[in-house]
Every structure is written in C-alpha cells, then in structure tokens.
Amino acid sequence: MSYAYLFKYIIIGDTGVGKSCLLLQFTDKRFQPVHDLTIGVEFGARMITIEDKQIKLQIWDTAGQEAFRSITRSYYRGAAGALLVYDITRRDTFNHLTQWLDDARQHSNSNMVIMLIGNKSDLESRRDVKKEEGEAFAREHGLIFMETSAKTAANVEEAFISTAKEIYMKLQEGVFDPNNEANGIKLGPQHTQGGTNMTGSGATTPYSSSGCC
Amino acid sequence: MELFRGFRSVLTNPAPGNVPTGAETVERLINRIQSSTLLEDRRDACRALKALSRKYRMEVGAQGMNVLINVLATDRGDAEIIGYALDTLCNVMSPVPFEEEEGEMNMPRERLADLGERFTEIFIKRVENVSLLLGLLEEFDFHVRWPAVKLITNLITNRAKELQECILVSPMGVSRLMDLLSDSREVIRNDGLLLLHQLTKGNANIQKIVAFENAFDRLLDVVTEEGYSEGGIVVEDCLLVLLNLLKNNPSNQTFFKEGSYIQRLAPFFCVLDTDLGWSAQKVSNFLLMLQIVRTLVKPGNASQVVHACQSVMLSCGLLKRLCSVLMASGVPADVLSEIINAVAEIIWGFQNAQDFFHTVMAPSNPPRHSVKSFISSSGVDWFVREALLILLMSMVNERQPFQLRLSVLYCLQGYLTKNESAQRNLIATLLPSVEEQSENKGCSMGQLLMNGLFSSDPFTNWLSAVSLCHAVVDNNMQKEQLIRVHLALTPEAAPVSLMQQLSAIIQSNQSAQARMGVLMLLCMWLSHCPPAVSHFLIIPNSVSHLIAQVSSTEGDENEDLIQAMCAFLLALTILFNDNSNSAYTQEQLIQLIKKRIGTEKFLDKMTQVGRHESYARVVKSPIVRYHNTSEILLDHSFCNTFRSLESVALRVVGGGRVEEILQNGSHLKETPAGIEAQYKETLMHRDAQLAQVQLENAQLREQNGRLQAQVETLSGRVNQLLSSGVSALHISTAGAQAEMLNQLRNVNDYLQEQVRERDDHISELMERLRNHVEVSGHHQQADLQEQQDGRPSDDTQVLQQEIASLRQQLQERAMEPAKEYLEQLTSLQEMLQQRDATIANLHSQQVDIFGSQQRIKEAEEQVLMLQQQLKERDDTIAKLYSQPMDELSSQLQHQIKESKDQIVMLEQELKERDATIANLESQGSINGQPQMAEYEQKIAELEKSLQLRDAESQHLQQQVGDLQKQISDQQRSLKEKDAQISVKENLESQVLALQRQVSILQMSERDCKATLRNMEELQQGSPDIKSLQQEIGGLQQQVTVLQQQVRDRDSEIETSRQKTGECEQQVLYLRQQLQQQDAGSRMSSDVLNLRNQLEDLDEKNTALRQQLRERDGQIATLQANRPKNPVPVVPESKKIADLVVVNQFQEARNRALEEQLSRLSQDQDNLVELMTEYEGKLAEYRRRLNDLGQEVADDLVLNCDLGENLDDGDLEEEEEIGMPQTQSSTVKTK
C-alpha cells in the first residue's frame, strides 16, 4: 500500500493508563480488558487519510513501568508525535505528567507534537481528575487535549488523527523536514527519489534488471 | 588490580645493561601524558604508547587505562590525540591476542586471550566511560569515529550483555550507532555493521530500538547499493544484522511486514540463469537471505503473522522468483534445498500459495537440471515440466543429496498441509480410473511414490511412505480411497491391495528405515479409519506378525523402536476397530495381547516410541537437520498423531471401555471442521439453554415481584387490622382467651373509672350539700338574730340553744347519709375488685380446663389407638388360637374315635370268641377230651391275645388321657387369654370411665361458663347494694366451689392419667408378649429359607452395587482425563449453571414467599375472624356499658332520691338542694 507520508508516534504515560489498549483500539478496533504488561516496546501501524493524502502511522507503544524508562527514552528522538496518556480515575497518573513531559521534551526533537490524553472516560463514576484540570494542564504546556475511552472507542480515532493533522500542518509550514528521518517523518515510496523502492525501475539495481523477472 | 600491581613491581625492576625495558618505557610515557602541559608532548606520548600497546598490552592496560580515559575526556578538541588514545585502548581490549604480544614467561596463551575481556570489565565498570565513547561517535573526524567504532565493537565482543545494558541506559546511544550506517566513509559504515551485528545479538529491546531507528531501511539500502546477493561480505553483514533483528522477535517481524520490507526482499532473488557459477560469497548471501525469509514464515511463529507474511510473499512475487530460481540450472545443491525449504514454508497450509505452486512449470527450453539426468537414466524420454513432479523425481532418486530429498519431502508436506484437494489429487493418481486416462503412465505423483515405496533403496522407501502419510493425514476420505489401491509388482503377478503389500514389507524388509516408513504410513492410515483397520485385519499374518514383533525382546535400538511401532499399530487396530471382523474384535484383540504379550509389557513397549531419541529430535519441528540418512527414522507429523492417540491407546489396552474412551477422547482429534461443527452445535445448544434459562429467570423474577407486592399489601392490611383497635392479637385460642380477659379487664377498668366518676359526682354533691347546709344554717341564724332583735333576750337564749341543737341535728343528719354512702361505695369498689379477681381466676381456670380438655382429648386418642391395637391383637390371637386348636382337637377326637372303634371291635370279637367257646364246650362235651385240650390251648392263646389287646387298649386309653390333658391345657391357656382379653376390656371400661369423666369435666366447664355468665349478669345488672353484696357473696362461694371442683377434677385427671399410664404399660407388656408369640409362630422353616434367599439376594445386590460404584469411579476418572471442553463453552455452561442456581434460589424464594403469603392470608383470615368475634364482643360490651351508663344514671336518680330522703324533715332545705341560688334569693326576699 502506498502512502504519501509516514509518521512515527510514541505512546507514553504511567503503567496501566491504557496505552496498549488505545493502540489496540486504533489498529484492531477491539478492546482487551485484561491488563497485559507491555515489555519494552510494542509496535502497531495503521493507514489514515488527511486532506486526501494517505498517511501511514507507525505507532510505538512503550512500557509505562519505571524499569523500562531508560529503554523507552530511546524512542523519543525518532518520533514525530507523542500521545501522553493519563488515567482520569487515578490522580497519581495525572501528577506524573510533568515528569513525563520533561523527559519527552529533553530527549525528543523540539517539534514533536504532543497530545495529552485523559483515558478511561467511560469510568465517569470513578473519575478522579476533572476534565478542566486536563484542559488547564494542556493549555499551560502547549499540548492538544482530549479525553478518550479505549473501551468504548470514544475519541480514540480523533486523538490519533488530530495529532496527525497537527504534524501534517507543521509539515506544510515547513517546520518539519520530511527528508530527515530523525524527525520521525518519512516520505512515501512514490515520493522518494533514491530508488529505494523495489517495484519500479531497476536503474539502481543492475543485477535485477537483466533477466529473471 | 592486585595482580597488575604485582606485575608492575616485577617489571619495574631495572633490567641489567641499562637498556630500558618495555615496562619502564610504558611507565615513562604514561607519566608524560599525565604530567605534560604541552599538547604536542602528550600527543607524542600517546602515539608512542599506541605503538607499544600491542607488544606490552598488559603493561599499557594496567597502568595507562585511566590516563587514557582522562585524555578522552579532556583533550576532545584534538582529534589526533583522541585517535591515538582510542587506538591504544582498542589494542588493549582486543578480544584476540597479538602475534608480537609478550607475556610473562609462565603466562599461557589462554590467559593472554582473556586479557582483553578483563580490561573490558574494568573499563565498563564505570558507565560514564561508555557514554564518553558514545559521545565521541558524534565527532565526524575519521580519526576519532573510526577507532571509537572499533573500540566499542571490541567492548561488545568481550562483554556483550553488560555493554548492551550500558547502551540501553544512554538514551541517544543506539541512534548514534545507527547513524554510522549513513556514514559516507565505507570503512566506518562497514565497521558500524559489524558493531550492530554484535550489539543486536540476543537482546530484544535493542533489536526493537534498532528497528525503530529505521534499521530495516538503512540495511536494505546498503544491500541494494551493494548489489544484493552479488554484493560481497558487506551484504552478508547487513543480512546478519537483519537476521538478528527478526529472529525470535515477533514485534519486529510485524514491523517488517507492516513496513512493506518484504517487498524489498523480492529483487534479491533475481538470479541469472547463466553458467557463471555461484561464488562462495553469493552462496552464503543467498542462504542468509533465505533464512531471513524463513524466519518470517517459520511454522512455529504466531499464525496470523505467518499468514500475513505468506500472502505478502505471494503477492509481491517473492515466491514466484524463488520458484524460478528453483527451476534454474546451476544452483548449488545446498542453496537449492534451502530454497525448497523456504518455498515449503511460504506455501505451508496457505491455499493460494499452494495453488500457485501447483502451477509452477519448468522453463520450456530443456534445462540442464539435475532432474533431467534421472529422467534419461530411467530410460524413458518424458518431458516433464511440472515443478512438483520434478521435485518428486529428485526425491525418489537415490543419487540426489539426501538433504535435497528431505527438503522435497518437506516441500511436499507444505503443499499437502490443509489442502484437501491436493491430497485428493495425489491419491487419485493411484486409483485405477485415472491411471487409464493418464497419458504419461508411470509419471504421476502417485506412480512416482509407488516406485519409491517398492524400490530397493530404504531411504527412498521411507521418503515415499512418509509422502503418502502427508497425503492422508487428517483426511479420512483419502484414507478410505487408499484402500482401493491395488498394484502388481511384476507384470505377471495379480494385483494385490496396497495394504497387503505394505504388510509384506514390514514382514520381510531387512532395513529398519524402510520398515519404519511403512509402519508410520500404516499407523497414519489406520488412525481414525475403521474400514482401513478391518482391511488390515483380514490380511493373513498381519496381526500375528505384530504380536510376534511386540513379544520379541532382542534387537538393537532401531529394532526396539520398530517393536514399539508395531505395538502402537496393534493398539490402533483396537482403537479404531468397528468389530466387523468377528475373528479380531476389540475384546478379542485385547485378550490376545493379555495372553500372548501381557498388558503391562505391551504398554511399556508402546510408550517406547515416545522415549526414543529420534522422537525427541523430530517432535519439536517439522524439519530437522540430519547428518546422514541412517539417522532418519521418524517423521514430525507421525509424532503428532502418536502424541494425540498414545494416551487413549494406553487406556483402551489397559482395560477401559473402548466406546467411552473413543467418545471422550477421539472426537476431539477428528478433523478440524468436525470439531468446529461440534463446537458450533454445542454453542448453539448452550445458547438455547441460556436463552431459556434467562426467560425462566425473568418469569420467576416477575412472579417474585408480584408475590412480594402481594405480601406487602397483605402485611399492610394486617398492620391496618392490628392498628384498628384490637391491640396485640393472638391467634391461638389460649391467646384469644387471654385477650378476652384483657378485654374484660379493660371494660372493668372502664367501669371502675365510671364508678370513680360517679363517686366524684357523689362527693361533689355531698360537698354542695354541706355548703348548702352551712349556708342555710347561717341564714337561719341571721333570721333568728333578726327575730331576737324584736323579742326579749331570755327567749332568744332558749331559741339560740334550740337553734344550736337543731343545727347539730341538721349537721349530723346531713353527714350521716353521706358517710353511709361513702362506706357503701368503698365496699362496692372492693367488691368490684374482688369480682375482677375472681373473674381473672375463673379465666385462668378456664384456660386450665381447656388445657386439660386438650390433654384428655389426647389421652382419648391414645386410648382409642390402644383399643384399636388391642382389637387387632385380639384378632390375631384368636386367629392364632383357633387354627391349631381346631386341628388338634379334631385330630385328637379322630384318634379317640378310632381307638373307641377298635375297642368296640375287640369287644365284639371277644363276644364271638365266648360264643364259639361256649359252642365248642358244648361240642367238646360231645366230642371228647383231646379236642377239648386243643380247644383249651386255643382258648389260652386267644386269651393271651386278648390280654395283649387289653394292654393295647389301655395304652390307647392312656394316650387318649394324655390328649385330653393336652386339650385341657390348651383350654387353660385359652382361658388365660380370655383373662387377658378381659383385662383389656377392663381397660376399655376405664377408658369409658375416663370419657365419662371428660364429659363431667365438660359439664363442669359448662357450669363454669354459667357462673361466668352469672358474673356478667352481675356486672350488667347492678341493683341495689345489698343484693349486689349478696350476689357477690354467692358468687364467691360458687367460685370457691368451682375452684374445689376444678381442683377435684384436676386430681381426677391426674389419676386418670396415671391409670392411662398403667394401661399403656399393660398394653406394652401385652404387646411384648404378643410379639414373642408372633415370633414363635412365625419362625417356620419356610421363613428361614426365604430369609436365607433374601440374604443371598442382598449379597448379590451389594456386589452389584459395588461394581456399579467401580464403574462410576472409572467413568469419573475418564471424564477427568478427558481433554478439556471447548474453551468457549465453559464460561457459557458456568453462566448457565449460575443462572440455574439463581433460578433455584429465586424459586426457593418464591416458595418461601408463597408460604409466607399463605401464612399471612391464613393470619388475615384468623384476624378477620377474631375481629368479627371481637367486634361482636365489643358490641356486647358496649351494650353492657350502656347498661352501666344507665345504671349510673339510675344511681344519680338514686342519689337525688337520697337527697330527697335527707330533706324529708326540712322542706326549705330540700328546695335549696334543688335550686340553691333561687332559694337564697327567696330567703333574702323573706
């Protein structure tokens, strides 16, 4: 499947806030109620469309546990977008946001788009963090904010897509250089000029051009 | 460090001849680096140290490491000195010793080898050192970057794990290393690849980060730039890193697939069909690339990842390219077999790829492929183009390398796995109809396999047999089709069935390998296929050969395996036996094994299969690397079958019930479609159940709600009733009476209150009277004084005296009736209280009477029961007595009659004799003496006989006497019985007396009631006080009388109770006697016999029950052993069970509620009844109250009368009592 751009995302936040569930809901459209601890980093991908352009999202779901923190830091640099997730039913996860944000800002490129997500909005009865608090935090730190539910899929799609829109906007504005892969953005196969795709011309591959195909 | 210090102390000793030793030089140089302030000096010293670092590695490392690290940290501005320092460190930590390296004399080479490792250990002890190195990678200068890369590579090589952790901890570490791949300087890029190869070994986290850092893109870019397989060692390095990243890392595999990198692999397999040959490098590149492909589609991976990769490989043309390489000429055999393996795994169980593979053709120009030589050597000049056929030909060609032949088998397995149509097509080529149509006879797949099966080469036999296994595995239809296959080995011989041929092979073939192949084929064929089993059993000697094999004990390891296989095959003939062959039914075969081999030994033999080393090797993976053909004995798919059936077979032969076990065990191993259908069915069933239960639940809930509502309304009504006046209602009659008592007490209270009111009224009246009297007295005085004023004083004194006396009289007169009145009233009150007490007493007595009545009733009942029992007993006794007595008496009478008859007869004879004697005497007197003597003799004889007869008759009479005595005895006992009966009658009469007493009691009760009524009447009509007093006195007397009566009655009841107790005891005694008699009369031999029979039957019964229990136990164990139920069903059934439990609970609750309801409604009824009763009573009481009110009014009237009586003598005062105010005014006017 061809695409115009590829964006790399990372999902960060405390353990058990529903990072993997958000990813699973976005890529597979299903919800897994059992908490399966993520070891290191897991990978997921999905194609979306923004302004009639096919964009491939490559999402790296990190482990929230402290033990994996040093590993997950390695993923900050190469990501164009980050979903910073907290659990609206657990205040401590909200309190740790500053720590996460500092970490992300320190290790990522400065243009990385960060989306703040208050997950588990379906558990309204157990809410511990008000929506206004999330909004205030996002405003203060220049983040986009949304409350989602990986269980009911509410706002999940929107969260991923609006992040992508923000990145796409920055791309159009020239803030991002699509040719620098360290930004977490890659041009699709039809945009690349180096002959790295395998389907078309054999100009750069002298051995494949002659014969067996 | 201790060690090194030791070395230094040795080395620093000045050597003879003033020539500085290497160690001294090193020390001097290090000092210079440390102390010199000039950069040039330090740089030179570093350069010199680098030069010495190979030869004097230990000295440089031991003394200089810290200094050098310091240089790296401080002199970063000068690339040259950094370069030297890095180079020096690189040498110090080299994983391999240098040629020129000089150790201590006694230092072995191995110690030198791990010197680098030890220095590495020291170096990475401080994580900052690693970070420092990673930081240096950012320096673009070649002199820094290159040695830094090499140094890190050395570090990783020596201490991979620790360094991986260090790099993970530094956030930018991996990305800096990844940047090396983009370095324009090839040396750095290539060394960076080596570094990555080491770094990515066995650490999934690093592998993932590397992949995240676009490693796939960069590596494939390098591969492409280098020209794919022709690209030399750099491509190999890239592929090694790729392989590291993908091996055992599902996340990266998904990423690889998602990132469309598989498509980028496809061009790699463009190979020119030329004779240029394959360089060693190209071969290893190609093999690595094939390994990468296989890593993605390895059958052990997660199935959805495998499937996704398979479909991409098919759609992007990778499979097609691989197949064209497969058909190309000049491909080295090891590459070829690896390609076949890769193709096998790409098409494995994936229908679209299998279909594609089926259509692959060799290029139309005859290829100089190795297969062709086989074709020409077989003497037939066919031109075969189907890739599958060409591969099969290679497989059955014993001149092909065995690795390649195994690969073809693997490929065939991949082609046939989950591909029923392919299996059908293969088997169809063996069946007669197709064979006739086929043009190129002898070159169908089936034909090739048949040739292989009966060839002289054991490995070819094995391969062909296993190929056929794959053609029938999980496909019962093809197993049945295969039974139809007949073939003739020589043109002359008649065709024999394939199975017969196979049976012949296992009996005659010398090679263990060939027999193993055929045994596996037979096992796979017979499993889950009863027709095949029955076909096998009718082959002569088939079973006996297996039995012989299993029972034999000698043989090498391979023979052991064969015997074990025979045992398994035999077990399968039992397991899947439909009992159609009467000679070999399941039961008979089990018995045969028991007799000829012994169950234990048989089972032990069978399990040998799973214990064989070859099994352990094969069971893990469908493809195994072998070193030579002789190792090859078992096949992976057979191992799966064995594993699934072993336990079932063990149980069947071990003595379980075949049907059950099969039902429990084998249905799970049927075709997946079957299982699915079963699951679906059970699921649907469960769904239906669930729905029904839910419905029931809802209904019950509704009912529950309704009932609850009813209960609520009822309880509300009950409460209402309770609160509507009648407080504390009781249901039992005793309670009701108590209630009545209460009621009466209330009424009494009310009456008392009224009486008190009346008293008040009276006292008021008295007060008024007194006042009046005083007032009037004063008036009279005043009048008198007035009169005195007009009269002489002596008169007045007399008058005054008169007046005083009059006043006193008046006062006395006025006081007297009032006092009397009060006294009367108090006495009345007392009487009333007494009356209340007596009423209460009577009530309690009444209650007691009720209780005693109850008890009497119970006693009556008991008595009745006893009477009944007595009657029954009497009947039985009468029966018992009448039967034997009648018989006995009749017998005795009969005997008596007989003996009497005999006596009569004898007397008659006597008379006759006498007559004859008389006759004879008369004759004898005539005839003479001799005759007389004769006659006399005769007479004597006769007399003797007569005496005998007499004795006999006496004896008989004695007997008769005895009998009579017996009869009299019996009669006596009968009399005794009669006496007992009369006792019983006595009891009856006692009972009657009791009843009479009871009636008396009832009567007395009636009397009680009457008195009560009287009392009530008393309450009602309260005429004047005297009559009341009289009545009260009478009542009290009556009460005492009644109490006496009650007491008497109680004592009577007590005595009657005692009597009944006695009666009961008597009855008990009688009962015992009767039982004894019963026991005596019943103990006949018949009864004993019957009892014995019964006991026998009981014994049998218990035995049967024991067996049943054993069966149950077996079933339970079987059920426990049975594989788990389908996963989705369990929660459902649990849910259902839960619901059922809930339902039961609901039902129980409903029942309870209904009970409550009925109870409540009963209560309600009772209450209503009571209410009406009480309302009646209330009405009555009200009536009585009215009466009392009337009384009170009367009393008032009476009072008035009294007042009148008082004023009889003084008219004025009388008037004043009537209307005092007007009276006073009239007095004034006077």
Automatic annotation (TrEMBL), chain A:
Has UniProt tagged this entry with the keyword Membrane? yes
Q: Which SUPFAM superfamilies match?
A: P-loop containing nucleoside triphosphate hydrolases (SSF52540)
Q: How does it sit in the membrane?
A: Lipid-anchor
Q: Which UniProt keyword terms apply here?
A: ER-Golgi transport, Golgi apparatus, GTP-binding, Lipoprotein, Membrane, Nucleotide-binding, Prenylation, Protein transport, Transport
GO BP: protein transport; vesicle-mediated transport
Enumerate the PROSITE patterns for this protein.
RAB (PS51419), RAS (PS51421), RHO (PS51420)
The record ties this protein, via NCBIfam families, to: small_GTP (TIGR00231)
Indicate what this protein is called per its UniProt record.
Ras-related protein Rab-2A
**What is the source species?**
Darwinula stevensoni
UniProtKB/TrEMBL annotation, chain B:
Do you know which InterPro entries this protein is assigned to?
Answer: ARM-like (IPR011989), ARM-type_fold (IPR016024), P115_Arm_rpt (IPR041209), Vesicle_P115 (IPR024095), Vesicle_Uso1_P115_head (IPR006953)
Point out the coiled-coil segments of this chain.
Answer: 690-717, 849-1045, 1087-1114, 1143-1191
Tell me the compartments it is located in.
Golgi apparatus
Q: Where is the composition biased (Polar residues)?
A: 1220-1230
Q: Which UniProt keywords apply?
A: Coiled coil, Golgi apparatus
- Which regions are flagged for Acidic residues bias? 1206-1217
Q: Which residues form the Vesicle tethering protein Uso1/P115-like head domain?
A: 352-649
Keyword Oxidoreductase present in the record's keywords: the answer is: no
Pfam family for this entry, one = Arm_vescicular
Return the protein name. Answer: Vesicle tethering protein Uso1/P115-like head domain-containing protein
Instruction: Give the organism the record lists.
Output: Darwinula stevensoni
Q: What high-level taxonomic lineage is stated for the organism? A: Eukaryota, Metazoa, Ecdysozoa, Arthropoda, Crustacea
